[in-house]
Amino acid sequence: MTAIAPHVSDFLRVRLPVERNASAHTRATYSHAFMLLFEFAARRLRCSPSSVELEQVDAKLVMAFLDYLERDRGNGIASRNARLAAIKSLFRYIEHRVPSAIDQVRRILAIPTKRSTSRLVGYLSREEAQAIINAPDSTVTGLRDRAMLHLAIATGLRVSELVGLDLDDLVLQPQPTLTVHGKGRRERRLPLWRETATALKRWLRVRPDGSSRHLFLNDRGDALTRSGFAYLLAKYVEVAAAGVPSLRTKRVSPHILRHTCAMITLQATRDVRKVALWLGHAHLATTEIYLRADPTEQLDALAKVAPFGLRPGRFKGADRLMSMLAESSTIAPQHESRLCTAEHNAPRRRSRSNSA
């Protein structure tokens, strides 16, 4: 049996940062996917995660893990496919280090990605977003959470970008701005609303001193995690739903806050290019999903197109005799044309026979 832990460690510490020069966000995403996989494998195999053997992580176990993500964790198809891509990348690396596992690796690489329906993006109304921002209390933790929620909705940060913010990324004077280290190592600088800057200032006044330079800290003084932010968001959605019942009908995830920022920006600017720059999208096609979800865009198009003119009429029952005559009138011209063609060709054939 071959231990898989050393290969996972080398993949995350050497393959991604040194050989591939992958960003910190990519490494964090892959680490999270592997953490979920080995927690699932440990429960299924009844052992500790570090003692899972390479031969035990076969295609059957990976398929069961993907089903677990969708069925038990409630992950969407996109998240399921992202986890599968991380697993495949790991096993392509293992394939060259453990040649004896090539058959096992090929079976895992053959697992197909699942196709998904391109649905309209979900987002919050201004009233719903404001209710969530107002949900935290005035304690130290509440000031942190209010600043974090305000920043997430105002800037549309990905949750990995939000929890990865450093104190040096925030500038409050003279103009409040935020430097975001985005996906694919693309940096962008965003101006902040006055209200967002005020919420951040209140948090910085009570932020505990410690060795961590992260902007948002958990109760232990370490950087807040993505799952920690998701937990806090779910808690405040429950609080806000007491005043805004429509929140109970929506599945509010951290990415929904990003969609909310995108829709607010699109409705304010009416320019999808500005939305793409604000969100840090590499391709404009990624931002077009918000055009399909914004009803004002379709109403705009409807208002600029002249409608067809329809005359009001009354329905009359069709007379059977007139219906039969109408059918005959459409068939008759076809027979007449055939007869005319035959009569026209007949004299020519007679003349040829006489000449012969």
Describe the structure using short key phrases.
single chain, 356 residues, mainly alpha, hpI Integrase, Chain A, 3-stranded antiparallel beta sheet, 16 helices, 3 strands, globular, disordered C terminus
Topology (SSEs and partners):
Blueprint: H1 5-19, H2 24-45, H3 59-71, H4 77-97, H5 102-109, H6 126-133, H7 140-155, H8 159-163, E1 170-171, E2 177-181, E3 187-191, H9 194-206, H10 226-241, H11 254-269, H12 272-279, H13 284-287, H14 289-293, H15 295-304, H16 320-355
Antiparallel strand pairs: 1-2, 2-3
Question: What's the quick description here?
Answer:
With 356 residues, the protein is mainly α. It has 16 helices and three strands.
Write a structural description.
It is a single chain. This protein has 16 helices and 3 strands. By secondary structure, it is mainly alpha-helical. The protein has 2 domains: 5-109; 126-303, hpI Integrase, Chain A, CATH 1.10.443.10. A 3-stranded antiparallel beta sheet has the order 1-2-3, with no helix packed on it. Helix 1 (5-19) packs antiparallel against helix 2 (24-45), helix 2 (24-45) packs across helix 4 (77-97) and helix 7 crosses helix 11. The chain starts with a helix and ends with a helix.
